[in-house]
Design goal:
This protein is α+β, with helices and mostly antiparallel strands. The protein has 6 helices and 10 strands; from the N terminus they run E-H-E-H-E-E-H-E-H-H-E-E-H-E-E-E. The structure holds the ligand C[C@@H](N)C(=O)N[C@H](C)C(=O)O and zinc ion. Keywords: Cell wall biogenesis/degradation, Dipeptidase, Hydrolase, Metal-binding, Metalloprotease, Protease, Zinc.
Amino acid sequence: MPISATTTKTSPSNGSATVQPRDLRLAGIALATLLCVACASSTPPTATDTTADLATPGSVGMVDIRELVPDIDADIRYAGDDNFTGTRVDGYDAAKCYLLRPAAEALARLERELRPQGLRLRIFDCYRPERAVRQFVRWAADPRDQRTKAAYYPALEKGSLVPGYIADRSGHSKGATIDLTLLRCEDASPARCEALDMGTPFDFFDPRANTDHPHLDDAQRANRTRLRDAMARHGFENYPMEWWHYTFRLQPPPDTFHDVPIR
Ligand SMILES: C[C@@H](N)C(=O)N[C@H](C)C(=O)O
Ligand SMILES: [Zn+2]
């Protein structure tokens, strides 16, 4: 896994990232490292370091899913204002889905399996820069902004959404996690598709979004099960709090959080 000033590594003990400057030989470098609170990097600068704004998802091992499936359906909600923050999110300079290559290849295999059944995937989010996660956390901590409450978290206080519904250190930043749903498509060109009823919309922060919530109707439960089974066949594990959130089981698991913008 490439490491740069744009990345932080997971602590083996508790699963969260820590700031651990390992090279304090040069006082100037150490000072720069300590001052770079926003970078939160565990690795000191090296000759190959670059700023987050110069690196690309490709340079840290990720691939645009449309290189593998050019016509996959994607509605990258954080690249616009149609999301729970009500604004375009930091780091989403383009509406693209980047994933580590093995995760992207697994997703492409699943899409190929689904199409003959009249089904397709719709992707909402993939790799998420850490600056986006920080924006989510700032949004959740600001009780004055309630513009999206009715649509996204009607029954909960926004301050309670972190970390269960919105992670303060997200697996999305490691490049193997994806938010998505299933579409049923008519065999036309271009395909005419409709999202399956999952019981809640994407990013509806509420117990009803829990994958096994008891008060779903039969069709909604079957649709969630269909998505979960399909994803499991291709190595993706569901997060029980959110029916749309899946992580690809990579060996060894990725341990690097990235803050490279999507463009
Ligand atoms: C914010 C939502 N789409 C999501 O991905 N939630 C999980 C918990 C995360 O932020 O990693
Ligand atoms: Zn997610």
